[in-house]
Amino acid sequence: MKNEALSSALKEAVTQAQRVHGASGVDKAMGTLLYSMASRLKDAKRLAFLADSIVQRKICTELQLAAALDFVKSHPQDPINQKEFEEACGVGMVITPEQIEDAVESVIKKHKEQLLKERYHFNMGLLMGEARSALKWADGKVIKNEVDMQVLHLLGPKTEADLEKKPK
């Protein structure tokens, strides 16, 4: 309430959303994205454009929102090329569980020897990072679950040695 600029931007974004979906049509996920967009957007004239993209469910994740904010920041001139915008934000990109499984499988295969040697002391963030870069628009939680599952399948449950702290 104290931040008037944010309050007015958020009110405008919600009003825009309610025009399309009605008062009860804005769910929690959409509201969270609208708030995040309103609080991070520097150029107020892009608010309606981005709010429409969120309301039309073209932008559905924080990752896509970050890409959208970067895009409008780097393209201040009107009009915005819709096709370029949608490509830059991953609009319509659907990553299947099979694609995630395959990507994680190939990353684990690449590091299999070192994984077997170091077991659970191996830096799992490395596996996550490589899988994420292979599937830019995939849900990070799903990738993490897949990495955990495949590592468990490869190495089996943690042993006493795995639970010990790694010596410095």
UniProtKB/TrEMBL annotation:
Name of the protein described by the UniProt record: Glutamine--tRNA ligase
The Glutaminyl-tRNA synthetase class Ib non-specific RNA-binding domain, residue ranges: 1-140, 143-168
Gene Ontology cellular component terms for the protein in this record: cytoplasm
Molecular function via GO: ATP binding; glutamine-tRNA ligase activity
Keywords: Aminoacyl-tRNA synthetase, ATP-binding, Ligase, Nucleotide-binding, Protein biosynthesis
Gene3D superfamilies: 1.10.10.2420, Glutaminyl-tRNA synthetase, non-specific RNA binding region part 1, domain 1
Pfam families in the cross-refs: tRNA_synt_1c_R1, tRNA_synt_1c_R2
Organism of origin: Lates japonicus
InterPro entries: Gln-tRNA-synth_Ib_RNA-bd_2, Gln-tRNA-synth_Ib_RNA-bd_N, Gln-tRNA-synth_Ib_RNA-bd_N_1, Gln-tRNA-synth_Ib_RNA-bd_N_2
Domain of life: Eukaryota
Lineage: Eukaryota, Metazoa, Chordata, Craniata, Vertebrata
An annotated GO BP: glutaminyl-tRNA aminoacylation
Coiled-coil residue windows: none
